[in-house]
Amino acid sequence: MDTKDHQEFLSRGCKCAPQPHARQLNVFEHSCNKLDTFDWLKDIKPPDGYPVFDIVEVRFKNSRKEFFRTTPDLEIETGDIVAVESSPGHDIGIVTLTGEIVRLQLKSKNINPKTTEFRKVYRRAKISDIEKWVDAVRLEDDTMLRSREMAWSLNLDMKISDVEYQGDRTKAIFYYTADERVDFRELIKVLADAFNVRIEMKQIGMRQEASRIGGIGSCGRELCCSTWLTKFQSVSTNAARTQQLSLNPQKLAGQCSKLKCCINYENDCYLDYLKDMPDTSKELYTKRGKATFQKMDVLKKSMGYSYEDTPNQIVMLPAERVKEIIALNEKKQKPDDLASDAFGIPENNNKTIDREADPELGDSLTRFDKPSKSKKKRKKRKPRGQRQSGKRSEKN
Fold first, then answer.
1. Is residue 105 one of the residues assigned to a domain?
2. Is residue 129 domain-shared with residue 190, that is, in the same domain?
3. Fewest beta carbons less than 10 Å away: which of 119, 258, 322, 369?
């Protein structure tokens, strides 16, 4: 199996390309596949006489997963390649979940198994089914490239990001992104004549496109949307302000050109910490002068203030110390200094930051960009003959 086949079938949860004339034992396994699942109820046996749940979860390409109903005489296990009902014809997919874990999965997605009509699982995939499926998968990359050329020739403002063939090779789904509404009726006719299949167009967003294509994030790991994240929540700049992040689009945007989803992961933690922090709009008055708020470290519960006469020098104070000074100011009292030993706070706990001496610690948007170091000029060496003659003269 070549590398191209490995990448194509990896998006469908396969370790390798299926072999039509061999047992499919090592095709499916839990690894770094997209949206991989783990059945944590597989070792728990149901009570005697308890009916087996007749709905299974089947995955197709990338993030597409659907639920299908099985018949009592059909025994299906996780990892089986099955032929399922589609419109029209049938599709080929891999079973990812079976048993009681599927009931919990339906509950998490607010799907009622009693009132919802599910499509059927026809059978385990036969040799002829797998052969057609493998041939159809190998056509997807070439179909996507040719369809992009056709859309460009028709002057359509759209991008076809992915193509998925149905298992019986009778239908192809084209996933595209577009900023505005696109009239692709002429494109459907051209695609149908070129590929002799039924065409279905699906518009997806920028985040869905990144989840289907995949990639490596700035953290060095695979994208969350292509590995485990299934629901996209809106990310606002308020979450970035809460976490004291610089509002730089180049640092906050992901591969989808939207705000990174991971900004929401720790936002609730920051909001809880900010409840105990004092009001930053209040100024601190000491005998030395008035100090204004400059920056904050939420997780360390420390706040930075600077005097009016030295705005470039920031004094980091614990939040409790700031509350003490505010309480004294309300009583019309002033401490000697921000970091006074009279209040039981040693000087070692108060760090002074000089912006001019260390500009990377300031609030500049480019504080993480290290300037390139200038190379030192090397001295020109003399030719080899002149160096040897010089050494001989010294010896003489």
1. yes
2. no
3. 369
